[in-house]
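Subgroup meeting minutes
Present: P.N., E.W., G.H.
Scribe: E.W.

1. P.N. recapped why we're keeping a running log of single-chain structure predictions: easier to compare across weeks, and new members can see raw inputs and outputs side by side.
2. G.H. added today's entry (202 aa).
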Amino acid sequence: IKLLFPVALIPDYPDLLGVASVVLGFLGFLIALTVFIVSRPERRALFFFGWFLIALLPFLNIFPIGNLMANRYLYHAAIPFFGLLFSSLEVRLSVKKVVPFGCAVALVFGVATFHWSGATSRPVAYWERAASLNPDSFKANYNLAMQLYNRRDISRAERFCKKAVDIAPDSVRAVRLWAMISSELGRHDEALRAFERVLELD
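Output recorded in log:
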């Protein structure tokens, strides 16, 4: 379902979409479009099928890549997937009709990707979305707590920091943040215990 409609993918990563990523993605689209226009239908389908299998490798995690949030890689697999789809449509429709449709789909997906690539410029909203999509993510809860703490929204920061500590009780940075939040809220004994815990872990 997410391959056809890649929405609500977990944005649990901090990197912005760099220029190299944009260039490579655009080149991939141009390659797909060129192959679709100039190749024979049977070779075209074979090309997109092979590309699709390769693009799925990070998502399948057959070879562990240390990244549990791999569903965002479906954006890459979506290019050859739709190439296969348009190849099948070509049997009934002319290339002149299929190519503009494919370009329109690519434009929609490109705009959505560009939008979310800049989401880290709105860090609170970004990490709120990440935490809502994956409530058990330590990174999402901790980073959201830190952003809220820096904005002096201590009560909300407390809630997400508590969750982060529950998920990773031996995390030095989470326990340290919990100590700072406890101190801000006037719970000095609890803050002292948390700071002592930081010294034990560090």
